[in-house]
Amino acid sequence: MSLAALLKPLEQKKIKFFDDKKKFNWHPELMLDDAPMQTSYLKDLVTPVQPTNPLTYINYLVEKGQFYHFLNTGRDVITRYEFNDYLRWCTHNLSDVLNFDSKIKEIRFEKSKFKIIKENETFFSKNICVASGPKPFVPDCAKKKIGNDVFHAKSKVLQNLSLTGKKVLVVGGGQTGLEVFRNILHEKWGRSEHATLITGRKNFLPLDEAPFTNEIFTPKFVSQFYHLDQNTKDDFTENLLLASDGNTPSYLAEFYNELYLDKFYKKQFSPYRISPMRWLEDIEDRQNSQCAIIRNKLNQQIEELQVDIIILATGFTSALPSYLEPLRSLISFDGQGRLNICHDYKLKTSLEKNHIYMMNYSRHGHGVADPQTSLMSWRSAVIANDLCGKEIFKNVNNKSSFLDYFNEENL
Ligand SMILES: Cc1cc2nc3c(=O)[nH]c(=O)nc-3n(C[C@H](O)[C@H](O)[C@H](O)COP(=O)(O)OP(=O)(O)OC[C@H]3O[C@@H](n4cnc5c(N)ncnc54)[C@H](O)[C@@H]3O)c2cc1C
Question: Which atom of ligand 1 is the closest one to the Cα of 374?
Fold first, then answer.
């Protein structure tokens, strides 16, 4: 949508965007009422590269008559619910280029063009941009059990769930796991008999939002990072995990306060346990329930937990989307089977004149900012410039950073 928002006013390119959803909805499975965005509302679809574009968050507030009231809230963080409403508002403005209810089945390469195959229609295009999202990551030990009792948090099962009288285990202590667990205690899905959260981490670890850490969400950092050797990149990415995958600090504080008030005063939450340093090793069937086999990473002991429901908040992974399989032989992968994506988001392929741009598939190549909304407008501007063959968005090659890894700044 960010790319659509930047390209549409140019009226130079014939563009079409397809999405399989009936109508726009941003991660509806995880649209929990209390969930905060982890990114500034100013990093919307367009503002960082084109603040004069009509689809800024500020314009959304003005058009909806909410501008002054929003300022009066004093917030610099919006909820996911508000972000979704902003995006939905954008879809109305982009309705002539966005096509919903449009599942792409297959993309082939024929007669110097990409052949894009929908259910009942086929389109041809010189270039394509792929942005169909990371996939839920399911640990191997849970794969055989996936269904209504064991499922990833980003799944439809969560929307129709009943936990009344059930024992539930949440696996994962990142922001999604924390949100799901807090909502279980608030009986969003009914009053559970008891709830356990396990996390392989040492604790709920806060998102690192310090100013110097946030330099990694700048175009200059991404450019420098891109040119590091792969081992250094993998090391950086692992060490900077909490810049993208930590828990929102204000959310942690609110949740801790709730636990405090409940434990010592209200005493309403059903029994619960938060268990860090635990790893799900297996899930076994036991008398109409599941037995989670859990390793305690501190003493290596195996702990067994009998539960009815297991919710996996085990993160996301990116892989070649299945509709691109017919192009596999043209595509370049690295030694670990990951996509080789150029600095300007073009997938490395054996094609000379046609390009596949990939959005959010290059955490290993472009760093932790890659699957985040944080730099989405910048990524879109880089792609838009490349597609148009000129620098329409002038600020994308922002050369400045307080962190200089290669002595690029003149003293
Ligand atoms: C709950 C949640 C909260 C997040 N919050 C933040 C945040 O606060 N800040 C941040 O920086 N990042 C956040 N992220 C991470 C990331 O920025 C978002 O996931 C972002 O939406 C990724 O954008 P995307 O376009 O790559 O994929 P998506 O938003 O997943 O969009 C992909 C779209 O492609 C469609 N699609 C898939 N396959 C096909 C097909 N074959 N044909 C047609 N359409 C198809 C999907 O239905 C979907 O609508 C969050 C992620 C999640 C899951």
Answer: 11
